[in-house]
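just leaving the lab so this will be short. below you get a single protein, a line of residues and a line of whole numbers that encode the local backbone shape. id like you to explain what the token line says about the fold, in plain words if possible. thanks a lot i owe you, the record is right below:

…
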Amino acid sequence: MGSFLLFVSTLEPRKNLPTLLRALAVCRERQPDAEIRLAIAGARGWRESAIFQTVQDLYLQDAVFFLGGVETEELRWLYNACRIYINPSRYEGFGLPVLEALACAAPTLIADTSSLPEIVGDAAICVPPLDIDAWAEAILTLWHDDARRAELARLGPLQAARFSWQRAARETLALYRRVAAR
């Protein structure tokens, strides 16, 4: 348990997986004994061929596992079993997989773009989306820092609890009432 990085989403350009793959290659070059592996759970999307080509070009076939779409129970297991959940996306409308990872107490690294920093608050580490060296450094640092991973695991569910369908419905209804009152 806890021996792999996890990324969850449809494979498409905005998810920025080539940057993550390059960072993984840097990590494996700097610390080959760490044996860092990446599990990618998500369906193929569009223009995903660059992702597979990057795996080939960087000789990461033994370190990257494409799981395809996974069922809810398998996904829950992956979030709970990973050492680090990682999302380098350049743009997210909301970022539901990040929230799921936090709810499952997965120590989380995210890109510091769009909605992601707002979703995670202080419960994750934010990294510039295109900075390969920053991603590699963040991965290696968190990979070896048991105390920091434990702290993020503690904070994650607390942050995730701030978001609920009940709260969204309550706030939407309040907004409709304010608009109707005008």
About this structure: The chain is about 50% helix and 15% strand. The mean pLDDT is 93. The chain has one domain: 4-181.
